[in-house]
Predict the 3D structure of the following.
Amino acid sequence: MRRYEMMLIVTDEVEEDAAKAVVERAKAAFAAQGGRILDEAWWGKRALAYEIGKRDHGYYAVLDVEASAEAVAEVERQLKILDEVVRLKTVRPDVRIRAAG
């Protein structure tokens, strides 16, 4: 299992409790796939870098998880079909980019 970091942006059309419920759903999906939540951060409502679907704010959350690549793919699939999720991005923070030369 590898370490991943997932950032979720939930639409501000829902209440904060509903946005937190989406994050809890993501955590439960990781647990169901055999993953482990190492850390989580709730950033709350923030301005988006650019307008998405006529919205300029969203609720941000970051999950630091340990899971298999298959588990990450399945959780992403489950979250992408939710109307409340505006964007999500998963990265491997331990991967280093080497400069050419």
